[in-house]
Amino acid sequence: MRRETRALCRVLAAGSVMALGLSLAAWGGGAGAADAPVHLTMFVFAAAGHMDVPESVARTYMQRHPGVKIDFVESSNAKTFPQQLAAFKTTPDKPFIDIGYYNADTMTKGLVNEMWQSLDASKIPNLKTIAPQFRQPQDTGVEFAYGPFGLVYNKQLVKRPPTSYADLWANAAFQHKVVLWDYVLEPVMLAALFNGGSGTNIMPGFQLWSQHADQIATFIHSNQELENALVSGDGTLAFFDLQIAMLWAKQGAPIGTAIPREGAVAWPLFIEVTRGETPAQLAVLDDLINELIAPDTLTKYSAATLYVPTNTHLPLPANVAAAYPRGALKHVINLDWVSLAKNTEGWNRLWDTMIKAKVSR
Prior knowledge:
single chain, 361 residues, alpha/beta, D-Maltodextrin-Binding Protein, domain 2, 12-stranded mixed β-sheet, 13 helices, 12 strands
């Protein structure tokens, strides 16, 4: 099974290392951590800003523990998680990914497949800094941040910015211009939610998208493919992560963002450890997670990505506070992630037959 990895072999900018080094000054590692050689592979999102902080934490840890080597896989959950799940089912004692960053969709799929290792809170003291409403049952991973999903569009080609999720499936101005992630079912869930369905009754959403499949321009499989489609004009509208879209815009892409009148979709991020780790690996992972969710680290991650930390005692970085209109996150939509995880296989078949087949003709 092939995967794209890269070792942490390049030298980080001195400022980045020193900045995190200050917060790690007292960080000596857990007892016995990294006494013997330990190799870990960490998954991170291939998106602007998401690599910087985990890499700095890992670099500092490896400097303090020369026996530890940490490689990174930079990709999307949609691309990498199916490989990770397949490996877990065939060789559960040899994880494809040891620790990773996951969205709600893949976190719940892993939960349903009993893939995640419960964390030992006594060895990860910074878990206590996470607000109670964000702590997971049995500490099966940690929800460390969240952010809003909404609508993103090419602001040079779209004369009237979108105002509703219904623009995805019912606005003729976007006919043949909607870009969808392949097998990412949230737009179908939203269509169901606003048209008589629910998380457990998704058929109204599939029927609506099937009737309006001519809205769809293409299916994509990575953030880069989405950005390319929007910038080129092959598509002009998508349901996506507003933080990443804002970073694209900041870098000069003609991308606009809109929080629909129905509200933003709350999109949590998790750090998860895959079951099957050795005791030596778990000792290192306890140390890493403790630092990855430390207050200073979460503040830096938030500033770099525009996600909101689940440590509610932290003041938001100025750029995060300024990123959203006042009150924009007061009303958010919480989708039924567990129903999605439990029904993924059957719903993917409906995706193929009711939606994708019509677009592929």
